[in-house]
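In this supplementary section we document a worked example of the pipeline. Step one takes a protein sequence of length 123 as its only input; no multiple sequence alignment statistics are reported here. Step two produces a three-dimensional model, which step three serialises into structure tokens for compact storage. The input and output of this example are shown verbatim.
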Amino acid sequence: MNLKYQTKQNCFETCLSILLDIPVEEIPEIPDKNWHVAINEWLRPLGKWFLCFALPDDSNILKKYMGYHLIMGDSTRGGRHAVLGYNGEIYHDPFPLGDGILTGNIEYGVLVDTGEIKYGNNG
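The serialised model returned by step three reads:
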């Protein structure tokens, strides 16, 4: 996992590039509207799927086994923000100030292997 600072305006795309271990330039710009559909259409040929979900605050037992994931929530600067998480805790914030996210209204995102890897025009 390469945590070197990568410059892109979108923290979600930056965190996703770190999880996938690919240059951030290879991540397409994800639209605000229907973003979950767009990201999963892009991930499908890679044999991945992005699963986004919320967890109750007291679900520490689940968080303990999540491994690397995204944490998405309200930014201290306004709007939404994404950071890289490990077992439910912030592991890396791609924003230079590293001020994280506010508590409440938090979602988690994990990459799931679909078992289907498609190359070229094979399907």
